[in-house]
Amino acid sequence: MTSSENETQTLLAVEEQVGVAKRRQVTGTVRARTLSHEREQPVEADLSVETLEVERVPIGRFVDGPIPDRQDGDTTVISVIEEVAVVEVRLKLVEEVRITRRTESRRMTDHVTLRRQDVAIDQDPAPDDPEA
């Protein structure tokens, strides 16, 4: 036997190959919904109330000329005059009108409705897949 007769020959009889394919499959669904909640909550606030107090003060004296309005703290003083016939015309201070501004605070309590929303997520089971 020669050396070429002792060599082994290999023949390919079967070969396997792999192919990979992908497909989408629904495994479940989700549903989002909002839930609203209401609750009463008391609220407090400081409110300012401004009032005017009018006071008429009789004076009854003669003056030399008109008296300009003046401010005395929170009080505005308006002088009211009239002409009186005498041998000469003189101004007589009849009265002063005093308007006083007063501010007071008071506590106010009321109820307001507050709303809040939450999101709830529900998961549905997967639909039956005939190909599975």
Could you list some keywords that capture this structure?
0% helix, 64% strand, four-stranded antiparallel beta sheet, mainly beta, 132 residues, 4 strands
Structural category? mainly beta
Order of strands in the sheet with most strands: 1-4-3-2
Biggest sheet layout: 4 strands, antiparallel
What is the helix content? under 10%
* Separation of the first and last Cα atoms: 61 Å
* Number of DSSP E strands: 4
Mean pLDDT: 85
Count of DSSP H/I helices: 0
String of helices and strands = EEEE
* Count of domains: 1
Global morphology? rod-shaped
**Any low-confidence stretches, pLDDT <50, length ≥5?**
none
Which range does the strand content fall in? over 45%
Radius of gyration, taken over Cα atoms and rounded to an integer in Å:
51 Å
Protein name: DUF2382 domain-containing protein
InterPro entries: DUF2382
Organism: Azospirillum palustre
TL;DR of this structure?
By secondary structure, this protein is an all-beta fold. It contains no helices and four strands.
Q: What is the topological layout?
A:
Elements: E1 28-63, E2 70-72, E3 75-84, E4 90-125
Antiparallel strand pairs: 1-4, 2-3, 3-4
Tell me what you see in this structure.
It is a single chain. The protein is mainly β and 132 residues long. The chain has one domain (28-124). The chain is 0% helix and 64% strand. It has no helices and 4 strands. It has strands at 28-63, 70-72, 75-84, 90-125. It has a 4-stranded antiparallel sheet, with no helix packed on it. A hairpin with a 2-residue loop joins β2 and β3. The two termini are 61 Å apart. The model has no long low-confidence stretch (mean pLDDT 85).
